[in-house]
Amino acid sequence: MAELRLRTLTFAAWTGLLVGAAAFTISGVSQTAVGFIDWFLPVLVWATAITVVSIITVPAPSGSHLSLGIGAAVGAAILVPDHAALGAAICLGLAATGLVERGLSMTTSRSDGDFLTDAIGMAAYAFSYRFVFEAFDVQLTLDPSWTIVASVAVAGTVWFVIRALVAALVGLERSDLAGRYLWLLALEDWAVVVSIFAAGALFGLTWPLMGAWAFAVAILPYAFGHLAFERYHSTRVTYGQTIRALAQIPEVAGLAPSGHSTRTADLAIAIAQEMGLHPNEVMELEYAALMHDVGRITLNEPAIVKAGYTDEDIARWGSQIIAEAPYLEHVSTLVAQQHRPYRSPGVAMDPDVPIASKIIKVASAYDDARIEMGLSPIESLERIHQGSAYEYDPHIGSSLRRVLVFRGEITF
Amino acid sequence: MFQDELTRQLREKKRIAIVFAALGVAILAVLFFTQSFPRPFWPWATFAAAAVFFEWNAVEVNDKLFASPSVMVMMTAAVAFGPESAVLGTAAMAALAMATPADIRERRWFQPAANLGQLVATTAVSTGVLAVLMVQIGDESGEWTVSTSMVGLIAIATGLAAAIYGIVNLGLVSFIFRRVYGASMNTWSHVPAIVLPLIGMGFLGGLLGTTYLLIGPASLPLIAIVFFTGYMAFESYAGLREAQLSTLAGFIKALEAKDLYTRGHTERVAYLSNMIGQHLGFNGTQLERLRWAALIHDVGKLAVPREVIRKKSRLTEDEYKEMQGHVHHVENLLSEVEFLRPMVEIASNHHAHFDGKGYHGSTGDKGETPSLEARILAVADSFDAMTSTRSYRVAMSQVYAFAELRRFAGTQFDPEVVEAFIEVLTASGEQYGSPVEISEDEARRRAEHGFGDLSARARMKYDELRQSARQRPAESDKPEANRG
Predict the structure, then answer these.
(1) Is B46 within 8 Å of B228 (Cβ atoms)?
(2) What are the structural domain ranges in chain A?
(3) Helix crossing, B284-296 with B265-279: angle to 10°?
(4) Of A46, A351, B27, B263, which residue is 20 to 30 A from A191 by alpha carbon distance?
(5) Within 13 Å of residue A104, how many CA atoms lie on the same side as its CB?
């Protein structure tokens, strides 16, 4: 449903871009003194540049893949003097980007929502840059280079806010934490964004004076950061793999049901995303869910098994082990709390049980019922609902139900 | 003997500190009278702040290889200042970078003094060459103005100057290192790894310098932004990498701690393997791989039931199989982690023998000699096993363990690795295992008579002693190698 609405919107935006390109071209050509070819050639060059650069994405710290297209638009806004030509180039470039993205089926890292966000953001940037630049040019008596730098900074801020808003609205289709989401997203990705803008502005400034060297000046320093962001991303992936591997030690030792931690983590992530948790929270939840049973390694001590143990012991042992790893303190507290009921009798809600711990509790219990007890999906879900007086948070239970419906495991 | 060595080092350090500090001051004084200071002041201050920031915050990319864009800042500044003031301007910036906040906090004298001379001399030589080249590139009027046609030549000149910077820096640092520590740094093997990135940075610095001259100060914030964000990304990458290593290490340590007999084993094996690797002249990447392999070599054992590991009597066939299975557990668990794959290969072969017998991982063929890293790991692992208390025997003495290693050299162990290990461990003065002479039979007999715990306590005492022996004063104030 949400996907369909997004698709319709994206298609509408795409059509709008084509119409915009045509309108800008007609008005531009009718006003210009040069012929159609001379007017249209730079438009085509810039449209191509925007398309080519847009296809390159950089993995931002928040986990989303940002398109570099805005960098090319920053350069175009500085270097294309004619308003109509700039509008036509951006519309055309974006429309072509939409086609290429679809053709290359880049849906793995980029979704429909990303294209919509980028298109609206870029259009907003071009408008506000031109507006701000002309205002600054008249009002302030600065060196022309400073005027450009200041205008890029102001228009870039406008772009950043508008883009974050649109991204949150797009995300709102699936999330109920829009305000927080927006703020944290803005905080996390600013470094990437700022460096893309600076590279675009450097190109715009140096091209008239240095010619082809402008490519080197703009691209080489940025490439260093780009590489670092990519490495950061891939290290984060292998970090996840490392944790996944360590979490399986109790399973390999035969002390925990095989595959339980992976399945629990997958389900917990789905619930967290359905509930609209922030990407960082989801990541911590993933680690905690993967390692929630790691305390079971203690059970290879026969004396302990003989003495008996509770779920609380497993949680505590697990969190003690995880606490030994620096940078995972929070994950350790999540694991320590995973056995706790979401409320005690007579209390509305225990405020100090983290939502991630409650999600792990539900996901793990569901997996136990489903796999260990061999119940059907609906029977397993019923067990969660039955336990929602104290044990399982009903919000998470209903989120679990929506996830299962979405996965087609149960139908209503 | 150890004390004599320390006294000699201190004397040498004092001598080098005086000579280098004097050299730095002398160069600055000469430049002060032959060059003009860059004007206006604030761009110089901006460049200087950036250069100092990058010098202080060099990121360790790969064992002892530091990535710091300070050389690029120097080259940008040199081009921006022009031949008249390039050398003085950049040398003054280098002088500012001589002491890090940590140096000041801990009141170190040697490193700042050595760095003053080292950094100033390096910078003066490289920007001096650059200044000469800039005069050649510039037009006849002698005025330093840049035109589009000069951009390429300037970038090439700065690339060359940065390469000179790298070579002079490396030469001076390894000179200091050799004088103080007596050991050779194997200098010239580092040249490509250091000089190639420097050429790139110098090239870029030249481009940015001309950008500054053509566009004016408005380009400064843009250049700064691109750099700082790139640098920050790199730092967070390095931090995450560090986090990954320490997560794995901490986790393994915590799991191991569940068992008194294996406590600290992994850490010690990693430490000993690293020692052997260094002695055999491994480079940074190889050492890192060896450390990781040592760290994970016993992960599989964590999945083997304690009863089997701790059993006092002989293992049954099944139990023996289960014990050997730990090699496969490592593979099953960690082969999913992409970057660990080569390390998993080393770790899974640590029970393979030099003559091709023994227990191979799935990647090693029976009858084949395992890789050098696996051979090192085998020696370190066996040595620590012999000198630690196990359920079935107390710890043996170091002398006895050495004899055992030598006895099986050529069959189970690589003789070269064994000799290297004995040499480096003897030289280090560290002591492992029982303080009294204990052979294997004696160790078993004592365990049967319940001396195991007693000896475990003695061992802890030894651990403490070793800790204090390891904290040698000389470690902390080496001049930072490979800066730039």
Answers:
(1) no
(2) 2-233, 248-407
(3) 160
(4) A46
(5) 15
Q: DSSP label at A361? A: H
Query: What is A2-233's CATH number?
Result: 1.10.1760
Give A-chain residues touching B152 at CB under 8 angstroms: 213
Q: Count of CB atoms within 10 A of residue B346's CB? A: 27
pLDDT digits (tens, 9 = 90+) for A171-208: 665 544 445 555 666 667 888 889 999 999 999 999 99
DSSP B371: P
Domain with residue B428: its CATH number is: 1.10.3210.10
Rounded to an integer, what distance in angstroms lies between the CA atom of residue A224 and that of residue B326? 42
Of B239, B269, B302, which residue sits at a domain end? Answer: B239
User: A325, B247: Cβ pair inside 8 Å?
Assistant: yes
Residue B162 confidence (pLDDT):
92
Domain contains B483:
no
Name the residue in chain A with its Cα closest to that of B211.
A206
Contact B97, B118 (CB under 8 A): no
Residue from the list A213, A224, A236 with its beta carbon closest to the beta carbon of B207: A213
C-alpha A248/C-alpha B450 separation (Å) is 36
pLDDT of residue B195: 83
* Confidence (pLDDT) at B461: 44
Residue A70's contacts (CB-CB under 8 Å, 6 or more residues apart) are: A118, A121, A122, A125, A159, A196, A197, A200
* Angle of CA points A33, A38, A41, to nearest 5°: 140
Rg (CA), chain A: 27
pLDDT value of residue B457: 41
Place of tokens 């040592």: B294
pLDDT computed for residue A185 by the predictor = 61
A140 to chain B, minimum CA–CA distance in Å? 15
- Evaluate whether residue B484 is within a structural domain: no
Mean pLDDT in order along chain B per 10 residues (484 residues): 79 89 92 88 89 79 61 90 89 86 83 88 92 83 77 91 90 84 67 81 90 87 81 80 80 72 81 90 84 84 69 68 72 76 83 80 70 90 86 79 89 90 86 73 65 44 46 38 36
At position B271, the amino acid (one-letter code) is Y
In the beta sheet, which residues pair with residue B62? B65
User: Which CATH number is A248-407's, of 1.10.3210.10, 3.30.565.10, 2.60.40.1880, 1.10.357.10?
Assistant: 1.10.3210.10
Residue with tokens 């004995």: B422
Which residues from chain B sit within 8 angstroms of residue A236, using beta carbons? 240
Calculate helix-pair angle for B41-56, B219-256, nearest 10 degrees: 10
Whole-structure pTM value: 0.76
Q: Of B204, B222, B244, which is closest to A149 when you measure between CB atoms?
A: B222
Domain assignment of residue B275, yes or no: yes
What is the structure's pLDDT at A92? 94
Confidence bin at A356 (pLDDT 50/70/90):
very high
Instruction: Give dist(CA A272, CA B171) in Å, integer.
Output: 56
B165: Cβ contacts below 8 Å, ≥ 6 apart:
B71, B74, B122, B123, B125, B126, B198, B202, B484
**What's the whole-number mean pLDDT along residues A259-277?**
88
B214/A209 CB distance under 8 A: yes
Q: Which of B228, B249, B474, B273 is nearest to B377 (CA)?
A: B273
Buried-state track A224-244, b at ≥16 Cβ within 10 A, e below 16: bbbebbebbbebbebbbbbbb
- Mean pLDDT score across all residues of chain A: 85
In a domain, B481, yes or no: no
Which chain A residue has its CA at the smallest distance from B238's CA? A232
pLDDT > 90 fraction of chain A, expressed in percent and rounded = 37
Residue range A202-244, pLDDT digits in tens:
999 999 988 889 999 888 888 888 888 888 888 888 888 888 8
